[in-house]
Amino acid sequence: MFAMAGASPAHNEITLNVASEIHSQLKKRPCHVYTNDMRVKVSATGLYTYPDIVAFCDPARFDDNQKDTLLNSTVIIEVLSDSTEAYDRGKKFQHYRTLESLQEYVLIAQHECRVEQYIRQPGNQWTLKETHDLSEVIQLSSIQCQLALADIYDKVSG
Q1: Which CATH number characterizes residue 114's domain?
Q2: Which of 30, 71, 138, 153 has its CA 20 to 30 A from that of 24?
Q3: Global pTM value
Q4: H-helix or E-strand containing 55?
Q5: Which residues, 6+ apart, have CB-to-CB distance to 89 below 8 Å?
Q6: Quick check: is 13 in a domain?
Q7: Domains in the chain: how many in total?
Q8: Side-chain-side CA neighbours of residue 121 (13 Å)
């Protein structure tokens, strides 16, 4: 567990940029995107997390009647922070890989232009695509969306 006192301006800007882009592309489709107040449960390991962004296109499955704990995330996106980067890359991703619904895990750096996208392959293998180029666009094929790095980092300074 990590105590979080609040996110940096860059972290907030990136999260808002990405969630806005995905939300716009999911309009009029049976898909949803939520930001960091939607809890995700990894049933196989018992972990509960609050990802920066979570998206899915299947009917939502919740842990209880409060509908505040999602069970079937398709895409999880984390904006990396100095205090949580190692956990996001390591143990947390190890837990997330047990989510049968998860197809893509995206890590976004806030101090430099860098996006890492892990994509589930047949046989529960994961491939990595990484880019550092503001002119690049990443494809979130599992939810049929795309994110231009220029949009991800719009208005983000240093």
Answers
A1: 3.90.1570.10
A2: 71
A3: 0.94
A4: strand 53-56
A5: 107
A6: yes
A7: 1
A8: 7
